[in-house]
């Protein structure tokens, strides 16, 4: 990939906890980063800054196109603008 080409939005999926041993939430983190290591580092830093005590990241990949529905559409747009966008949701226990 050239420096002139736009980098794709990276999505990282996993689970997060506000308190160690607490109730888990599902998480999708969207951002633009030069490589997977940088993406994971920025995601973990952002999750910590938002008050999450623990995170388990399961998968990482590049988005293929824009999501259809909110809140992922706004998160995708935020990532294109340079933000680290975090979407959380309830997960079955």
Structure description:
By secondary structure, the chain is of the alpha+beta class. It has one domain. 25% of the residues lie in helices and 33% in strands. It is built from two helices and four strands. The chain has a four-stranded antiparallel beta sheet with strand order 3-1-2-4, with helices on both faces. The longest helix has 14 residues, at 36-49. The chain is globular. The model has no long low-confidence stretch (mean pLDDT 94).
Quick take:
With 93 residues, this protein is an alpha+beta fold. It is built from two helices and four strands, in the order E-E-H-E-H-E.
Topology, please?
Blueprint: E1 10-17, E2 24-31, H1 36-49, E3 54-62, H2 72-80, E4 85-90
Antiparallel strand pairs: 1-2, 1-3, 2-4
Record keyword descriptors for this entry.
93 residues, four-stranded antiparallel β-sheet, 25% helix
Q: What's the Cα radius of gyration?
A: 13 Å
The SSE order reads EEHEHE
Number of helical regions: 2
**Could you say which structural class the secondary elements and strand pairing correspond to?**
alpha+beta
Strand order of the largest sheet: 3-1-2-4
Strand content: 25-35%
End-to-end Cα distance, whole Å, is 41 Å
Let me know the average pLDDT.
94
Please tell me what the overall shape is: globular
Largest sheet: 4 strands, antiparallel
Number of domains: 1
What are the segments in which pLDDT stays under 50 over at least 5 consecutive residues? Answer: none
Strand count: 4
Q: What proportion of the residues is helical, as a percent range?
A: 10-25%
């Amino acid at each position: 990939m050239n420096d002139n080409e736009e980098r794709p939005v990276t999505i990282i999926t996993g689970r997060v906890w506000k308190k160690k041993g607490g109730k888990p939430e599902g998480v999708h983190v969207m951002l633009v980063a030069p490589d997977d290591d940088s993406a994971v580092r920025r995601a973990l830093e952002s999750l910590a800054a938002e008050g999450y005590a623990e995170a388990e990241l399961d998968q990482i990949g590049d988005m293929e196109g824009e999501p259809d529905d909110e809140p992922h559409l706004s998160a995708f747009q935020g990532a294109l603008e340079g933000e680290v966008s975090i979407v959380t949701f309830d997960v079955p226990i």
